[in-house]
Amino acid sequence: MNKIYIIITTLLITFCNAQVKNGLIQYGVISHMPIPSNDDGYFTDIVRKANASDTLVNYTLTFNNKESCFFTNPVLLKEYSSYHRFNSGLMIKSQYYTSTTDSIHKYYENDDVVGEYVIAMEKEAKWTLTQETKMIGGYLCYKATSPFYNGERWFDDSHKLDVTAWYTTKIPAPFGPNGYHGLPGLIIELQSYISTFYIKKIDLNITPEPNINNLNNYKLITLGQKNKLLSKTLSPEMRKFMEDTELQKKEAAEKQNKTK
Fold first, then answer.
1. Backbone torsions φ then ψ of 259, nearest 5 degrees
2. 25-80 confidence digits (pLDDT tens)
3. Residue 229 and which of 40, 129, 239, 256 are 20 to 30 A apart at CA?
4. Which DSSP state fits 55?
């Protein structure tokens, strides 16, 4: 976590005391992916590559009063040839669109089976607000928690995981990284069992307004359609990866519950 605070001390902030009409936020990510107990070296290699590559990946959130889009900045990963693979390993969506005017939120994916597509969701975070605070980059931030969400379903089973958001009411924009939204202010830091997003730069009230990609230019499918297509073509390696990922989540949840 020291990396976060080293970067925060050099945080570049363009702040305006007037009403926040729009913004462009740059996030970085730190990976701390746990390794499942039955790992045969596969996850160890993924973790090594993720830890070596997280400083090479940046994310941007653009927003106005009604909508936002979170997306990965195109970069070249020397060891991780595709940022889609990097994002998949850390359960990060390459693009995620949210709107305050309805309950539909969309995220983009790209794989060898389905190609480029968008899945529409209606879920929102079930935030628990607290009075716990800390200062991040000059902003007073409040703590909120929610069940962890990987872009596909909320974990409400026996291995429930939490995510922690630190948000500031000084920027009353209800948006954040990786599709998380709905708080009384901008999410400055987002912590899960697998990664931590942190702010690198904040620009507010930009002229002209930043572009908001609503992801309407891609094929729209349901989560059920995606899973049906993938289930027919899953390789033994991918099936093992999915099984190991579930074990990874279960063990992380057990560890989390012991610390409560």
1. -90, -10
2. 999 888 776 666 666 676 677 666 666 655 667 899 999 999 999 998 865 454 44
3. 40
4. G
